[in-house]
Design a protein that fits this description.
The chain has helices at 8-39, 48-68, 71-74, 101-120, 128-158, 160-177, 187-194, 202-218; strands spanning 235-236, 241-242. By secondary structure, the protein is mostly helical.
């Protein structure tokens, strides 16, 4: 008799579960890392208002990380919250402190944005604990987007060196964040889509991000074009991490 794990349906479920475990684990690790990077600017942001916002966003992200790790249990993964201690499967660009305020805003826009776009695609996930967590995270991410958009507009309006520095940081950050969800043809992600674990594929999520940012900056008279990643040779699918 053929066992359940070797049937096509069983293989599809196994591939989907493995892919989602990788995504959810890395989501939590990146949120923990983003919390650290935000917190480091809680005392050195260019305005008092943004210093307060950075500290608040750091607290939010750490809370999201702590509450996301337990979702792995529903995916059959016995994992702790090691990412909270600075390890784990995070984007390489979050290994070290964000070097300047433009890098902070680029992370706020693109890293925070990419992670939130994935979370939104899981709001109705067939993985019940993930769907519940996703809806709660989305409620708290609105203020992060408001902060990112306000600063993007402000820096675009400043023009000159500030605008150009922001654009440079956005392109640099996209090289990492844009690859996080993985290639469009990933079989595990396709299986997860089939089983309703996630609602939108990686290419669609990236297009959502690119369209949003192009519209945001375009309203300020600034053009930006973020490419769909084509070179995956230096992307580690296990760590969901790209190395320049």
């Amino acid at each position: 008799m053929t066992t359940a794990t070797t049937t096509p349906a069983g293989s599809t479920e196994a591939a989907a579960t493995a892919c989602m475990a990788s995504l959810v684990g890395s989501l939590a690790d990146n949120k923990a890392a983003l919390a650290r990077r935000y917190a480091e600017w809680g005392v050195s942001a260019p305005t008092l208002e943004s210093a307060v916002a950075a500290a608040a966003m750091a607290q939010d992200e750490m809370g999201h990380a702590r509450s996301t790790y337990p979702v792995l249990k529903a995916l059959g993964v016995d994992a702790g919250d090691e990412g909270l201690e600075g390890r784990g499967n995070r984007l390489q660009i979050l290994d070290d402190e964000l070097p300047d305020w433009m890098a902070f805003i680029a992370a706020n826009l693109l890293i925070d944005g990419v992670l939130t776009t994935f979370v939104a695609a899981c709001a109705d996930s067939s993985i019940t604990p993930l769907a519940q967590r996703a809806r709660k995270i989305l409620q708290e991410e609105g203020s992060h987007r408001v902060h990112a958009e306000a600063w993007a507009k402000r820096l675009c309006r400043a023009g000159g060196g500030q605008r150009d520095a922001l654009l440079a940081r956005l392109h640099e950050t996209w090289e990492h964040a844009g690859r996080w969800a993985g290639p469009a043809n990933d079989p595990g992600f396709r299986a997860a889509l089939e089983l309703g674990m996630v609602a939108r594929d990686p290419a669609y999520q990236r297009q959502q991000m690119r369209s949003w940012l192009a519209e945001l900056l375009g309203a300020e008279g600034v053009t930006i074009s973020l490419d769909e990643p084509t070179d995956w040779s230096r992307w580690d699918p296990g760590k969901r991490r790209w190395t320049p």
